[in-house]
Specification:
Helix content is 46%, strand content 14%. The protein has a six-stranded mixed beta sheet, sandwiched between helices. Strands 2-1-3-12-4 form a five-stranded mixed beta sheet. The chain has a two-stranded antiparallel sheet with strand order 5-13. The mean pLDDT is 92. This is ABC transporter substrate-binding protein. Keywords: Cell inner membrane, Cell membrane, Membrane, Signal, Transport.
């Protein structure tokens, strides 16, 4: 019920009428305090890594952002989005499909300035399920209809001849249920669901407790896909671009640090870390950010990883928002079952969304100024999207 209320709240926010009071409040705040401090909002998942690393390492201050408040932890996407649209926070991470919904469902003046991370999600199932076909007639939890998890899962199900339904699944059908990530492990343990697809570290938590096993990694289906993106307000981009550039510089350096210091990053994010950014155990986050080589190799040996030639990590970091990804994401959203009213998708041009939603000027400059091309494996600003179930 909590997840349903969360979805309905966001559905109301992502309409012109629902977002207007929040956007008006944000506008008043911006007018009264044009030099507002940096206020970070996040959910306690690995998607928030660059934001939290940049804060912990003092990178914002290093890059000239003098006034930085302590990051604020939110428990739901709806509360995070509400705080962002109203101006209570001005830097957040958000599920990449949700950013499309925000921009074109409610015309919210938000911009994607970079990616937060790549991959970092998995389809985890009950221990007695060994194949995708074994999900027939069962219920699988997703964190949100507008999520890369829903898009990838439905691609997997279609390729395996399974149809998505919202209730009473029969043979050859899979019921999808929106569920808070924090509830998924317990739901799997008591067999309320047969599986879930979500960001880390909940897949690793299910593994560590012995109540679930990874059946597929999302990055082994859509190569180097983004999960969460970094959002900033359009008025900040227009009125104080130097400040935005400094923020992005810090975030890019934070990503570079996370990519090269995975063990330290896991500790930093954990409840054992000095800032206690998340409630997760250090050991669980280590299994996500820095899995032992032999443990990671077993996923290939058992056939869970089907594309070892892609050389995927369980979670990876690369900040540049390729236009081809946004275009492909819009295309796939058009063929993905999403609850609610989604008429804006019917006429949304993938090429237009890639150009209009994303402002890549700041991340390009940050990568080039920091000479991070090699760190992130960037060979230019274009690529081909590879999806293979």
């Amino acid at each position: 019920m909590t997840s349903r209320r969360d979805f309905l709240k966001l559905a109301a926010l992502f309409t012109a009428a629902g977002s207007l009071p929040l956007l008006q409040a944000c506008g008043r705040q911006a007018a009264q305090n044009p030099d507002a401090p940096l206020k970070i909002g996040y959910l306690p998942i690995t998607d928030a890594t660059p934001l939290l690393v940049a804060h912990a390492q003092g990178l914002f201050e290093k890059h000239g952002v003098a006034n930085v408040e302590k990051p604020v932890l939110f428990r739901s996407w709806a509360s995070l989005v509400e705080a962002f649209l109203s101006g209570q926070v001005n830097l957040i991470h958000l599920l990449s499909p949700m950013s499309i919904w925000a921009r074109y469902g409610s015309a919210s003046p938000i911009k994607v300035v970079m990616w937060n991370h790549m991959a970092g999600s998995a389809l985890t199932v009950a221990p007695d399920i060994d194949t995708i076909a074994g999900l027939g007639g069962q219920t699988v939890a997703i964190p949100f209809w507008y999520s890369i998890h829903n898009v990838v899962l439905q691609k997997i199900l279609r390729e395996n001849g399974l149809k998505v339904v919202e209730k009473n699944p029969q043979a050859g059908e899979v019921k999808l249920s929106v569920m808070a990530p924090s509830d998924m492990v317990a739901a799997l343990a008591n067999r309320a669901i047969a599986g879930f697809i979500v960001a880390e570290p909940f897949n690793a938590v299910a593994e560590s407790k012995g109540v679930g096993k990874v059946l597929r990694f999302s990055g082994d289906v859509w190569r180097d896909h983004a999960c969460c993106v970094t959002l900033m307000q359009e008025h900040d981009i227009n009125r104080r671009p130097e400040w935005v550039q400094n923020v992005v510089n810090a975030l890019v350096e934070g990503q570079a640090y996370a990519a090269g210091h995975r063990t330290d990053t896991a500790r930093m994010l954990s409840k054992q870390g000095p800032n206690k950014y998340t409630p997760h155990e250090d050991a669980v986050l280590q299994n996500v950010l820095a899995p032992a080589p032999d443990a990671w190799a077993r996923y290939t040996e058992t056939g869970i990883i089907r594309h070892p030639e892609w050389h995927q990590n369980r979670i990876d970091f690369q900040p540049y928002p390729y236009p081809s990804y946004t275009e492909k994401l819009v295309e796939m959203l058009k063929e993905t079952h999403i609850a609610g009213v989604n008429r804006f998708l019917d006429t949304l041009s993938p090429a237009f969304a890639a150009q209009d939603l994303v402002d890549d000027r700041f991340v390009k400059q940050a990568v080039e100024a920091g000479q991070f091309q090699q760190v992130f494996g960037l060979n230019g600003w274009t690529r081909e999207e590879i999806i293979a179930v």
